[in-house]
C-alpha cells in the first residue's frame, strides 16, 4: 500500500482535499480509520474550508461521521460559505 511505502496521508490536491476527505465522502470507514491511524488530521480544510467531516455529513456517512468525531473533528467548523458539518447533515 502507498502508506506503507512512505506516502504522506496529508497530501493535498489542487483544491486542498486530502485522501481523508475523499474517503470520508465515499463512506469508506476502513480507509478513514487507516488514514487517521497513519496521521491524517480530521480538521484539515480544503480551499472551500470544508473538512472531512463536512464531506461525510453531506453523504450521511454515519459510521464515518462517528469515527471522525471520536478522533477530534469539530462539528461547528465553518467553511467559506458559513456552513458547518452539522448543517450539511440536516
TrEMBL record:
ANK repeats lie at residues 15-47, 48-80. Keywords: ANK repeat, Repeat. Residues 71-90 are annotated as: Disordered. InterPro entries: Ankyrin_rpt (IPR002110), Ankyrin_rpt-contain_sf (IPR036770). It holds the Pfam family Ank_2. PANTHER family: ANKYRIN REPEAT DOMAIN-CONTAINING PROTEIN 39-RELATED (PTHR24171). This is Uncharacterized protein.
Amino acid at each position: 500500500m502507498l502508506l506503507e511505502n512512505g506516502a504522506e496521508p496529508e497530501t493535498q490536491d489542487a483544491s486542498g482535499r486530502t485522501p481523508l476527505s475523499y474517503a470520508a465522502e465515499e463512506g469508506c470507514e476502513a480507509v478513514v480509520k487507516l488514514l487517521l491511524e497513519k496521521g491524517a488530521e480530521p480538521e484539515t480544510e480544503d480551499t472551500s474550508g470544508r473538512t472531512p467531516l463536512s464531506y461525510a455529513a453531506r453523504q450521511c456517512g454515519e459510521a464515518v461521521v462517528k469515527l471522525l468525531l471520536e478522533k477530534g473533528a469539530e462539528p461547528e467548523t465553518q467553511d467559506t460559505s458559513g456552513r458547518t458539518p452539522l448543517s450539511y447533515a440536516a
